[in-house]
Amino acid sequence: MHRLLLGTRNPGKVKEIASILQDVGWTFSSLEEFASLESPEENGATYAENAIIKARFYATATGRCALADDSGLEVDALAGAPGVFSARYAGEGASDADRRALLLSELARIEANERRARFVSAVAIAAADGTVLNVSEGTCEGRIIFAPRGQGGFGYDPLFVPDGYNQTFAELSAAIKNVISHRARALMQTAQFLKSCKAC
Known about the structure:
By secondary structure, this protein is an alpha/beta fold. It contains five helices and six strands.
């Protein structure tokens, strides 16, 4: 059976990815097996570039076929920010709560009907030699609310209500989120690739 290293130390993300890809016939491992492995500098200009940087780095460093993703929140009222800087929006060492607080402060004077936003995700897979095998992208449109709601998810999930729903990503069940989210949409394309991939 093919093995795929999930290039993240975020346990919520590992669980989410493994759940969405559970039927592709691969086995998964995470960076928890490589405690001393550092993370590459994410200096790409796009989500896809950052996902590729991470996938190639983890694949060549471990000798395993690796998957990595990069995602971000784009808020129209902030000209698309925080975008590719979503994880670093509040500076190094900031928590998810810090990033959410900063975003809310930036949007403090923005009315509800002007809080359009979207999550964007890119997922890349690289072979052990660093060859990029596949890149998939997904988007989920929605809006930013005025205060966090919900205990699930991670990152900006408690602030984002996807179109067609009244709950935030942090309030929705994993079963729903793993169908409609930006990462889910990118991973569904990834799943199709993995089912037919013979490279790893």
